[in-house]
Amino acid sequence: MGTHERLVFVVDDEESVRKALGRLLAASGLTVKVFAHGVDFVDAVSALRPDCLVIDLHMPGLTGLDVLRQLMQLELRVPAIVITAHDEPDARTQCIAAGARAYLCKPLDAQELLDTIHEVCARA
After folding, report:
1. Is the pTM of this model over 0.85?
2. CA angle 59, 77, 18 (to 5 degrees)
3. Residue 1 has pLDDT above 80, yes or no
4. Can you give the residue range of the structural domain that contains 106?
């Protein structure tokens, strides 16, 4: 599958982060769909399966970890990258246990994020 065909879903409650990530990923040849809430993503993922999910850990309502656990319960295999500005003890371990393929701390390095997306998609 070529890079331009890859669909990446971004879930983050901060509009500025969604816009910045959307621009970065689109400029890199990826197809991007952004969501402000985990619930919106969960509703959409059953109809359209992304090649990769980039999701914020700390959001009101469903957290990134909650969303990962729901995906496991629904048996939906979506390669996920968790991003967070508030790294906490055990958060990485919990996210990986819930199915995340990677865990990155904000502020994000653009090249590291793109490399991680490509690695996660290649391993899927």
Report:
1. yes
2. 35
3. no
4. 3-123
